[in-house]
Amino acid sequence: MHKLVVLFDAEADQAVRDLWRRAGTTHPHPPHLTFAAAGTIGPKVRAELREDLSRLWLPDLWLHALAATEGHLHLTAVVDGELLAVHSAVHDVLAGRVKHPDARHLPSSWTPRCTLLEGEDHEVARAFAALHPVTPIRARVRQVAVVDTQTGGTDPLRNASTAPR
Q: Which helix (H) or strand (E) element contains residue 89?
């Protein structure tokens, strides 16, 4: 599976990793927020995403609330018009051009979140209790990339240093 993800600046990355530690978990990938997921996001689509992302302003994310769902503990992001506009622009490029899109990440189904824990319900409940209340984290976008969840490979599409001003 390929995921289009936002990676956070060093301070936010460390803050999430501290929450992981407190929750007693580790992850194979760095802290991130997923914009889209599909069986395949091919080279032509990635090129278009690179072009579109080069023109977009990526807002800071405010990770602020714990949410527990079906064996997962998440830190959810504040949803605002700017974030939804970027998400919509990404999906305009992807629409009909990727194989096996994950419906959970489509516009009107998406909840922007950073996964803190995947596990049994009792593990999620324990971690929720250990982390609540959570201090909000301001996450600046360091990079937007496609991550291959099978190989761990990362294809950067935009770095913060290339952001429009």
A: helix 81-94
For residues 53-72, give the mean pLDDT.
Answer: 95
Q: Where are the beta strands (DSSP E) in 41-153?
A: 61-69, 72-77, 99-101, 113-118, 137-139, 141-148
> At residue 162, does pLDDT exceed 60?
no
Among 14, 50, 60, smallest CA distance to 155 is for 50
For residue 150, CA distances in Å to 30, 58, 107, 130, 161 come to 15, 27, 25, 31, 28
Classify strands 99-101 and 72-77 as parallel, antiparallel or unpaired. unpaired
Q: Which helix (H) or strand (E) holds 6?
A: strand 2-8
Average pLDDT, the chain: 95
Q: Report the residue count for the chain.
A: 165
Q: What is the pTM of this model?
A: 0.93
Strand partners, 137: 63
- CA distances (Å), origin 88, targets 26, 43, 92, 144: 31, 20, 6, 15
Q: Is the pLDDT of residue 74 over 60?
A: yes
CATH class of 2-151: alpha beta
